[in-house]
Amino acid sequence: MSAADETVCKVIMAACCQCVCVRRCLSSSDISPAEYDILWGGNDLDRGNDIMTTGQECEPGEKWSRRNTVSLAKGEHFLPDVVLVFSGKRRSTGGCDAELQEALRTRLRVMESSSQDISSLFKDLSARLLSVHAERDCFILTFKTVEEIWRFSTYLSLGYVARCLENFLCDPSFWLDPALLSDVEICVSLQEEHLATLYLGLLLQEGVFFAKTVRALAREEDEDDEEQLECVCDALLLVRDVGREEFWEGTLLSSGARGLVPASACQPLPYPFYQWFLRKYPCNTSGLPADTPLSQHPMATGICVATVDYEPVDPDELALCEGEELAVEGFLIQGVGLFVGRSLTSGLVGFIHKEHVRPGDLKATNAELQFMSEEEREDLYGLEPALTHSHTHTHLLKQLSSSDISTIYRMDRLDESDFTYIKSQPKPEPEAPSRRQTLDTAPQRQSWTWPRLSLSASQMSIGRSTGGVSFSLDDTFRETEPVEEEEELWEELSEGEEESCEELLRLLDTPTALLEVDVCDASLDWLRRACVCVCTWEEHVCEREGTCVCERTLLRRLECVREAAKQRGRAWALRRVCFLLGRVCERGTRLSQARVYYEEALSVCVSGFADRPLLTALYTHLAALYLHQRQTDKLTHTHTLARASTLMLTQTRLRMSSAHQLQMLHPLMCHALLLGQRALEGRVCFLWLSMLLQLGRQEEALPFLERLQFLIGSQRARACPEAGPDLSWLLSVLYHRRYQPHLALAALSLDSSPPRGLGHALGRLHLYLRSSERQNPPTSTAATPTSIPTQALVFLKQALHIAALEGKHTQHRQLCISLAWVYLHHGVLQEAVLHAEQAVGAGSRLGEEEEFEARALHGWLLVLTGGSEQARAVLSPLLTSLQGSDSPSPRGVVHTLLALSLRRLGNFQEAGSHLCEALRLAKESGHTPNQAIALSNLGCLALGARAVGVAEGFLKRSLHLFPQLGGGAEQEHVQALLWMGRSYSSQGQNHRARLANEMALLIGIHAKNIHSQLVVSKVLSRHYAGELLYAQSIVYYEQCVALARQLHDKRMEGDFLEILGSLYLSINTEKSSRRSLDCTKQSLRICIDLGKRREEAESWLHAGRVYYLLQEDELTDMYLQAAVRTALKVEDPTFSASIYEEAGDVFYKGHRNQLKALPYYRDGSVPFARSCADVLCEFRVLSKVTELLMTHNHHQEALPYALLAVQSSTGTGIRLHERVAYQRLACVYEAVGQCELAENYFLKCVSLGPDLTHPSDARYYARVYTHLANITLHKLKDAFDAAGYYQLALAAAVEADDVECVYVLLMKLAELHASRLPDTHLCHHYTHTAHTLTARLEGLTRTPQLTHTQHTHTQLTHTQLTHTRHTHQDTDQDTLTLQTTQQS
């Protein structure tokens, strides 16, 4: 196989971009597919085909070597889909960036909700999107036709696929960081072998395709099938499926012969471009001689040395002497058997056969000029279709830099809830309809300006207004009846005509090239006008003769000149006039007659290379006619095709004089295809492109331009990074004309060629803006800085740099102001300040008005950035310079900006004086908008100084003025109403505050200002929530969600949905709970898309909590488990412990299935709390586990957790936690029947008890000692100790002054001494004392006082209580350790 076949799969190359993907997960059911994926861990692709490369590299051609013939491809199962994988990389490290990759995935999840945009993107790329898989960083694509694969593979190899994904998926903030922009790249890749297999499969499905033979085919002697086709190796065939297993029907393109060919001997042409070309332009390669390799360079220039003595057979060939040095004229191209050379000895020029020379001092052509010369590259740039004009650029800069900063006051800002900044856009001035020029309307066709041309290329050029010549052979060459000779054609010329013909004869008879200026200077108006008449098929009146000069008259006069040239032996005149006659006949579709004239012209014995353009035109036109009339013998025997192709390919700056010359390029492309010569193919593509652009047929030129750019890129990858010109700008223009905005933006952003002047740079910017508008249609038609995408900053900066280099201060200032506004809109204030400073420098060179506008913008930006001192230093001199001027508005602007800076510095008094002065100036000038803004700023100043009443007065006055403006100041009006609402709220007038805020919302809705509506809706929702009117608050939060969706801000939408879910849940009805669940699920999907793991886990948890309230236990378990799994992905033990605990709390705090909380506490929260040493969390969870087990009578299971809770409580360092842990442990021991240990730990609780600083502290001791007494008396049967505990409890009750408790304890003591410890005296004493408290218990007014005996007993008991606390505190740790060992 040839080298081209071996590298066939390299058409699918990786390209650059920045992006992210995910599978769509919207469903009308309660649980979406994406939710099930997370619930059950289903995150794999549904397909089982593993077709992605795994990093194993193959030699070129290895993939195709397995299926390089039709027989190998037949019968295979072609998978219909292709996996396109993307990855984010850092150029600085050369490796993948995990953080960047996750950011790309997140962005894709967000953008996936707009599935139509993604489908539209891949539709532009000629691919069909099946699905998106963010977690695997891939798209699943498919193709239905070979043309789709051809176009997609072309876009992929040119880098457009990656750049389209970058433009589509990258966050706008990415383009604001130049360092990140230069370091990050996005690579896309797919498995080339699979795409090649799919390409073959589609070819086989279509049943008709082009192939070439891999070996020579000859009919065997014993072969019975006489229908077999005989051909040489590497012959081009049109193959058809005829239903036979081993054979196909083949048609030779060279001869048209048909026959059967073995399927194993046919190899489909590797590149889809070749299939498309041969279908659209059928041709053959007969008549082209075999090439003799002469140089190792595909295209070379320099010196060759003759190896033989050679006598030419016609005057156009060069005579050679062995050893003679020959200079190559033009290019020496591999694949072309001839070249044009000049003898360094004689200076003669002619055709030279490569087989007659050997290489001398040959050098490769300039690597920066692949397939073309420097002059041809400049000519190609001149052929670019004009999309804009200079007045369009001027209008664009005016739109981008338009602002009212020098005439309209700025609004102040109280806090973060106010508008960041307000920029009122002046109404655009109407333009005259004749001056309106956009990219969407086709501009007037540009008149191409060429260098001085020869007569053959200038006088007979095709008028661009026709465009009626098509690529079809039948349309290009239309045969008509032979010319009928008429007597009028040969009638005698008049005297004036004889003079004109004589003058033409003298003009044409020159041995050098005849330039256009020679004809223009001569008095031959009839000739020029007649030529135009022939080209445009219109009649023109000759100024000189006053008659119509038509084709018939022209032919008659030219024939007379021809006869005269023959009679007088004027060879050059004869050749040129025969060419003119042939051109007139050719345009008049008298093709046979034209061929005769061309042959006669070439038969004239002159040195043809003296007029090289004429010689090229003669050979190319004659060869085109031979090809059309299928006169292959003449093409071969006269060497016409070989010489015509040599002149077209090797000579630079070929001029298009007829669409027929395109016919010559058909066999040349086939020849390059067969030889596998990339240089020859690139040269042919360049010629085809330039010819079609000359004809104004840009649509037909696009495939050749794409192929040429691909070939240049291939050479660049092999040779050096700087090899070859970058044609991306021309591609972007043609894509824009085809209404393919994604490709236009991709090509434009990949254009690495430096701008050719400020006009070209502004044209790039204009094209980018218009293509962006097509991709994302704006709400308004005017281009403003707020509508500029951040990607356009690159082109703005390029234009700014060129404007500075060229010294164009006006454009420099406008571009600086535009950049400052763009950066301000996107919140990059420091960059905005820097460009405003540059605008000041440029404005100082222009005039006072331009400088003032730039300085005012600079001062305001300093105020916004917090540089109030710097702003004051900048604005104070500006105000001084305006003193005494008759321009009140600029002075008022400066006063306002100074006031804003002073208020931020805390100088309210001076700020108020400046605002009052600004108000006075606005009143003097009668400027109502400035009056309203000045009054609003005064109200804001008063609010900041807490002078609410004064603020209300100023704001009321301003609100009376805003309705008079009639639009244009809606944001200012809304801001004033918000300040008025804040003023009313400060005075407690909530009803009026609500009315002011709702009025602001109505104004925002009327103005269709989404940002204003969002600000006011948030204020209203918070207002109603503060008044506990949750239903009204929900209405406005729903409005906030709708506005966030219009802004495509997923983060904001998720935050509002989370708040909505909580508000709906607070209403506490089943319907509201269902609605809360819906909001939570929507918020959950957004969290998944954004990759916010923590918020996602909390959303899963909240949804599980709502399902528990709705008594859907199965779904509760599923969502809680999903919350836990998501929390584990965060890899934060503290967060995981909290999620486990909250999941358990759903059951623990509920009334159903409380024991389901145990796995979350025991198996999740406790281990994570220990791993992160969170003692407090561990104690809290262990206490919950103990309490839960005790509640459900699992006392024995609760005991170890109670012991662990005691141990962890000591680590918290909080006495209360220790006391609670010991008391819970005591209760557990009591429940399991170990009363001695229970008594011990209750005493430990007493030792950790609070100080007696409050009656409630004493009550605690009373309850504990009472409980101890009951345990000792009833379970341990120790009446003596029980009496002591009762006495301690009695002392605590007396300290707390709890009469009821004292009464009960006295009666217990009386009963104890009556039965268990018989003591009549004490029994009577306690009984009597208890009876004395009866009257107090019954509510009598007289409260009996304790007797002296009682008081003494109380003091004694309190002393015992304190002694007991200290005694047990000494032995608590040993007892705890002992009991822990017993439990183990």
TrEMBL record:
Cite the PANTHER family for this sequence: SH3 DOMAIN AND TETRATRICOPEPTIDE REPEAT-CONTAINING PROTEIN 2, SH3 DOMAIN AND TETRATRICOPEPTIDE REPEATS CONTAINING PROTEIN
Q: Which Pfam families match?
A: TPR_12, TPR_8
Residue ranges for the region (Disordered) are 422-447, 1362-1384
UniProt xrefs under SMART domains: SH3, TPR
Q: Which organism is it from?
A: Coilia grayii (Gray's grenadier anchovy)
Q: Where is the composition biased (Low complexity)?
A: 1374-1384
Biased composition (Basic and acidic residues) is annotated at 426-438
Q: What is this protein called?
A: SH3 domain-containing protein
The alphabetical list of record keywords is: SH3 domain
* Highest classification ranks of the organism: Eukaryota, Metazoa, Chordata, Craniata, Vertebrata
Q: Cite the SUPFAM superfamilies for this sequence.
A: SH3-domain (SSF50044), TPR-like (SSF48452)
UniProt key word Cytoplasm: no
